[in-house]
Write a structure and sequence with these properties.
Elements (H helix, E strand, L loop, with lengths): L9 E7 L6 E7 L8 E5 L10 E3 L4 E7 L12 E9 L10 E11 L6 E4 L3 E4 L8 E3 L5 E8 L6 E10 L9 E2 L7 E2 L8
Parallel strand pairs: 4-12, 9-10
Antiparallel strand pairs: 1-2, 3-5, 5-8, 5-9, 6-7, 6-11, 7-8, 11-12, 13-14
Length: 193
């Protein structure tokens, strides 16, 4: 069979001899076994592609933390909050330094997985917007995800950073036959005007 126990639970064991002559008792306390945590940015909800460069405007940011000692309850998925901040890259220029912050809730993917993913995402923006899912980010700024493992006695802290860059999109040129821009064509005759 399987016996489930979680952090700070106590196991009690009792053995009784078949003839009742001997009885033995023992206990064991479930303590934290600290493990190193990792944190990483992803660009899709599927968490397949880790990214270290973000587009300045309109890019989607998801966060994944792997920390097996944060699994406190073996019967339920656990959750915690990570801080996402953006930092200006202009060094000593006026307005440099801290720009914006956002807090994301990460939930465990299963009861005992130790993998914590953001259910919501952050969107990079260059203009001021006070909604809870936008993080201000300019060209060459840095996004930083910061996580502190409260269960590790040594103060396990992990950080991941991503550069905000100008990601170019492919341009499309289209020729139209009319001034209303509704009739796309790929061939024009010499007499077309």
């Amino acid at each position: 069979g399987r016996l489930q126990a979680g952090f700070a639970d106590t196991l009690h064991v009792r053995y009784d001899d078949a003839d009742g002559a001997d009885t033995s008792l023992d206990t064991a306390l479930i303590v934290d076994a600290p493990t190193a945590a990792t944190i990483e940015f992803f660009d899709t909800r599927g968490f397949f592609v880790a990214i270290d460069t973000r587009a300045v405007h309109g890019d989607i940011v998801y966060v994944l933390v792997i920390d097996t000692d944060e699994n406190l309850d073996p019967n339920l998925p656990d959750s915690f909050v990570v801080e996402l901040t953006s930092w200006n890259a202009n060094g000593d220029a006026p307005g440099s330094g801290y720009i914006d912050s956002l807090y994301l809730i990460l939930r465990e993917t299963g009861n005992r997985s130790g993998y914590f993913r953001s259910d919501t995402y952050a969107t990079t923006r260059v203009d001021s917007d006070l909604t809870d899912t936008n993080i201000l980010c300019g060209l060459h700024d840095t996004l930083q995800a910061f996580y502190v493992d409260e269960n590790a006695g040594l103060g396990d802290t992990v950080v991941d950073t991503a550069l905000c860059a100008d990601v170019s999109n492919a341009a499309v040129a289209q020729i139209y036959e009319n001034s209303g821009y509704t009739d796309e064509v790929d061939t024009l005759l010499v007499r077309d005007a």
